[in-house]
């Protein structure tokens, strides 16, 4: 019998206000959730073959512009791996024939949000969400990228982006387990198979890419007949048709890309491979090549993966993490590509356990799962969780996961923008028998079993130290076209009205309404944060927070996880630097039942001994993993260097603590922290919902209004601890075999989060904030030494730091610090903000305001930050006039006042044998430390 809970699924997102579903004592069926939502669209095709999909959504004066090309890394011939991604960089970051300054400047000046480009096996895309009044300019630029790019592509620009991409590769490869994916692909697929190589490509092929190679790549793949253009937002199809014809209609058809056949290979026999990496624990992988996105079995594979190792209540979690506790984490995923997919299981073996025994146990668990299949309840929980997650990710019109993505994927891969309907209908039709049949068909084949053990990495294939001089290429003719249109008048931000209520016990509720999707977001926030963690027992709060969602006095761990899945709810406990919170997202139809769980988690944690020991071991594993990662090592070191060990801000942001402290914690420590900080007289509740506050207040009062504070004294934080005197120096932390160095710079400012930092932040955009900042343009775009870097005011409630983060190739570490020092000092002296930079920053900041609060998550975060920093409810609406009145002189003065000489302390995580001589040549004191 087919799953009756989901047969009628039609679509996923509203363009009009959501239909209100009545509250129920039982979870609302998935069919009822699905009927409340829809993504209407219209489509047309230009004479040159460009397919266009239009979705109207008037909730904000913005339009998502997404251009998807039917070309990805699977289309790359031998010797040209990485070309699709390299050309994405060229299209994204370089000038076109009629936008000689590049697209990034006008995109920033118009206030574009969610702009980027990505490449994967099957496609390349470029996207941005722009103010409605800037749509003509955005379409002009997108069409120039499609039809007028090659004349602006030079050898110098190719070389710059080549260096950036190679640093992107180094940055990924430098992470723990960063080399595994290459091995998986090369072992699973035979030579010549389109999916055998990674999207990032090889260093050697990137080195060999010539200007003529890249020109031909564009000619072969970037014609309008090989593309899909989606416009979603404040636009209708008649307007879209006229504008798209105006800007894209003249571009001639290009070559038709017909991707090579890509069969689903089966290994002749099980393959066991062993690799080594500088990691703290063994990780096991099991991988199969399976059918892809368009196959009838895709939904069954999705459900199979979720039940086996994707849900919080998954089979592998219950058996290996919660059961025999031989693993600290597990995961199962189904990656559905156009022509095939990958089904992957991962297990992080608990340190001290027999990895061979865990490997055998894993194989047996998978075999048992294939033999028995999932239950009806497991499928139902997966369906509701999937539906809830999809609704929430499709709230924005564009970006990485918005409605434009759903429509573009459907048109590009299935010739149907409404393909998501078929996907959801298939998800609703999944049964235990269908999953069992699909797993029996595909997961009983020979598996690739990969094991990563701690140890020295295998040899790393670096880029060539010197490339042969490029062959001269003839210049191409530039085809003139009409000038780029100007941006029209911008609409001012209309931030949602903020309302308040007070519960019976005095807890304040701060609320804003968002009716785009039938979702409610709640954050119960406490004045604590990582800053409240114990200096003598760091890691206490993190362990306490992890245990909040592990069970209550009336709900065991698995029961709590399963109830969230049935409701389409997620509850998470978290800590920022200054605040601790418990958040909940849920479909509003199940709001009351979800609030029951939220209240129980916050008020009645069980802190069971078995849960405590398991989570303690996971936290210890997390510390070890943090000490294996460049970012983790640097993130643990820098706060102590800047603030000292006794200051509340002298703790790593992760809050994981130290091994000795976490090993010594007991239940009394956790209950004591909970009673001191997680209490009604230290709480504030933030809500963004499609339901009115008058309806929500009684629900909240029934669950939190009777909550009385405990007898214990409420906690306080000692911000009167002196910050150590700062002097420029370098702290080097050795991480051998690192192809990249992570440079962190820091300086504690005489600024707090409750000060007015609007002018300072605007000034910082010129030197450190965003893609167009001087430091990123110099070190990334001009020199090609980094994939991306930035610096900015890292706002705190109290003493605020300025932080710089710069991952750079190892052999340029010292030079990069020298460049950073020179750029900041010049900016703070005789090379302040120019008139051009001032105008770009001011226009961009004004233009981006309406699109910055398109989603309920954005609005919730705005409410929380306003409360933390003591801002008025209309704070965001006041920014536009303030930006308009801001001068370059005022920006310079504020930057110089706050940053002084920018005498940063530098923390460098890298291979000391390579970088120490470079650092010593800078003339600054160098201290070498171990990661701790």
- Percent in helix: 25-40%
* Total beta strand runs: 23
Work out the strand percent.
Answer: 15-25%
Average predicted confidence as pLDDT? 94
What summary fits the major beta sheet? 6 strands, mixed
Describe the structure.
This protein is of the alpha+beta class. The termini are far apart. The N terminus is likely disordered. The strands form four sheets. A six-stranded mixed beta sheet has the order 1-2-6-3-5-4, sandwiched between helices. A six-stranded mixed beta sheet has the order 12-13-17-14-16-15, with helices on both faces. Strands 20-21-19-22-18-23 form a six-stranded mixed beta sheet, sandwiched between helices.
Write the layout of secondary structure elements.
Blueprint: H1 30-35, E1 42-45, E2 51-56, E3 62-69, H2 83-93, H3 104-110, E4 113-119, E5 124-131, H4 135-147, H5 155-173, H6 180-188, H7 203-208, H8 211-221, E6 227-233, H9 237-248, E7 271-277, E8 283-290, H10 298-310, H11 315-321, E9 327-336, E10 341-349, H12 355-372, H13 376-393, H14 403-414, H15 419-428, H16 432-442, E11 448-454, E12 498-502, E13 508-513, E14 519-526, H17 540-548, H18 557-567, E15 570-575, E16 580-587, H19 591-603, H20 609-626, H21 630-643, H22 659-664, H23 667-677, E17 683-689, H24 693-704, E18 729-734, E19 740-748, H25 758-767, H26 774-782, E20 790-793, E21 801-809, H27 813-827, H28 835-848, H29 856-868, H30 875-885, H31 888-899, E22 905-910, H32 912-920, E23 926-929
Helix pairs in contact: 2-5, 3-28, 4-9, 10-15, 10-16, 11-12, 12-16, 13-18, 17-20, 17-23, 19-24, 25-28, 25-31, 26-27, 27-32, 28-30
């Amino acid at each position: 019998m087919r799953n009756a809970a989901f047969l009628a699924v039609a679509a996923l997102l509203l363009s009009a206000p959501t239909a209100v579903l009545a509250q129920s004592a039982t979870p609302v069926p998935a069919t009822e959730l699905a009927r409340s939502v829809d993504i209407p669209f219209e489509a047309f095709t230009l004479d040159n073959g460009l397919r266009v999909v239009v979705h109207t959504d008037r909730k904000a004066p913005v339009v998502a512009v997404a251009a998807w090309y039917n070309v990805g890394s699977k289309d790359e011939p031998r010797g040209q791996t990485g070309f699709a991604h390299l050309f994405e960089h060229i299209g994204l970051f370089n000038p076109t024939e009629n936008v000689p300054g590049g697209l990034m400047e006008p995109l920033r000046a118009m206030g574009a949000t969610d702009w980027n480009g990505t490449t994967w096996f099957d496609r390349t895309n470029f996207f941005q969400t722009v103010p409605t009044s800037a749509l003509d300019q955005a379409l002009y630029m997108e069409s120039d990228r499609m039809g007028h790019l090659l004349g602006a592509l030079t050898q110098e620009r190719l070389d710059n982006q080549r260096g950036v991409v190679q640093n992107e590769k180094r940055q990924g490869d430098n992470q723990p387990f960063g080399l595994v994916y290459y091995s998986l692909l090369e072992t699973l697929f035979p030579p010549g198979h389109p999916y055998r190589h990674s999207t990032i490509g090889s260093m050697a092929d990137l080195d060999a890419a010539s200007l003529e190679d890249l020109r031909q790549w564009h000619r072969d793949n970037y014609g309008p007949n090989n593309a899909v253009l989606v416009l979603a937002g404040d636009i209708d199809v008649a307007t879209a048709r006229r504008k798209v014809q105006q800007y894209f209609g003249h571009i001639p058809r290009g070559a038709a890309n017909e991707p090579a056949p890509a069969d689903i290979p089966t290994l002749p026999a099980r393959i066991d491979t062993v690799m080594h990496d500088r990691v703290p624990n063994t990780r096991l992988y099991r991988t199969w090549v399976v059918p892809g996105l368009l196959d009838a079995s895709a939904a069954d594979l999705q459900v199979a993966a979720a039940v086996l190792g994707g849900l919080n209540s998954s089979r592998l979690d219950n058996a290996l993490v919660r059961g025999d506790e031989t693993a600290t984490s597990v995961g199962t995923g189904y990656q559905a590509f156009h022509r095939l997919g990958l089904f992957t299981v991962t297990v992080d073996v608990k340190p001290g356990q027999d990895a061979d025994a865990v490997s055998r146990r894993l194989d047996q668990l998978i075999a048992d799962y294939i033999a028995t299949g999932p239950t009806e309840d497991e499928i139902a929980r997966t369906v509701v969780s999937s539906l809830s997650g999809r609704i929430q990710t499709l709230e924005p019109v564009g970006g990485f996961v918005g409605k434009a993505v759903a429509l573009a994927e459907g048109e590009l891969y299935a010739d149907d923008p409404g393909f998501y309907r078929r996907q959801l209908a298939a998800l609703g039709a999944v049964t235990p028998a269908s999953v069992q049949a699909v797993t029996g068909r595909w997961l009983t084949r020979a598996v690739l079993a990969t094991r990563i053990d701690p140890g020295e990495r295998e040899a790393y294939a670096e880029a060539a130290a010197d490339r042969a001089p490029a062959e001269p290429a003839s210049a191409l003719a530039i085809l003139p076209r009409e000038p780029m249109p100007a941006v029209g008048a911008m609409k001012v931000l209309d931030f949602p009205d903020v309302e308040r209520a007070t519960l019976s016990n005095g807890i304040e509720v701060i609320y804003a309404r968002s009716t785009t999707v039938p979702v409610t977001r709640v954050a119960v926030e406490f004045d604590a944060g990582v800053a409240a963690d114990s200096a003598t027992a760091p890691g206490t709060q993190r362990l306490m927070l992890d245990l909040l969602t592990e069970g209550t006095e009336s709900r065991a761990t698995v029961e709590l996880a399963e109830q969230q899945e049935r409701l389409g709810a997620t509850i998470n406990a978290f800590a920022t630097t200054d605040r601790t919170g418990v958040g909940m997202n849920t479909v509003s139809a199940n709001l009351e039942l979800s609030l029951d769980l939220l209240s129980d988690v916050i008020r009645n944690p069980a802190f069971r001994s078995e849960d405590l020991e398991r989570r303690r071991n996971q936290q210890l594993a997390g510390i070890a993993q943090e000490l294996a990662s460049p970012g983790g090592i640097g993130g643990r070191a820098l706060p102590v260097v800047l603030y000292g060990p006794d200051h509340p801000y002298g703790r790593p942001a992760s809050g994981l603590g130290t091994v000795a402290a976490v090993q010594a914690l007991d239940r009394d420590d956790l209950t004591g922290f909970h009673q001191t900080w997680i209490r009604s007289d230290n709480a504030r509740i933030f809500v963004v919902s499609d339901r009115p506050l008058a309806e929500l207040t009684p629900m909240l009062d029934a669950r939190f209004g009777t909550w009385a504070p405990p007898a214990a004294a409420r906690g306080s934080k000692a911000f009167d601890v002196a910050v150590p005197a700062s002097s420029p120096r370098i702290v080097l932390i050795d991480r051998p075999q690192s192809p990249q160095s992570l440079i962190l710079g820091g300086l504690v400012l005489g600024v707090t989060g409750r000060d007015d930092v609007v002018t300072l932040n605007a000034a910082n955009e010129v030197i450190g904030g965003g893609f167009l900042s001087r430091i990123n343009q110099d070190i990334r775009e001009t020199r090609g030494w980094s994939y991306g870097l930035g610096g900015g005011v890292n706002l705190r409630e109290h003493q605020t730091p300025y932080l710089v983060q710069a991952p750079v190739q190892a052999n340029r570490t010292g030079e990069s610090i020298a460049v950073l020092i020179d750029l900041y000092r010049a900016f703070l002296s005789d090379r302040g903000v120019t008139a051009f930079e001032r105008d770009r920053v001011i226009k961009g900041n004004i233009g981006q305001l309406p699109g910055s609060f398109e989603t309920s998550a954005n609005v919730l975060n705005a409410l929380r930050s306003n409360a933390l920093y003591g801002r008025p409810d209309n704070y965001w609406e006041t920014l536009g006039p303030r930006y308009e009145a801001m001068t370059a002189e005022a920006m310079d003065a504020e930057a110089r006042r706050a940053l002084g000489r920018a005498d940063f302390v530098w923390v460098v995580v890298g291979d000391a044998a390579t970088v120490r001589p470079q650092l010593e040549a800078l003339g600054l004191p160098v201290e070498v430390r171990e990661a701790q």
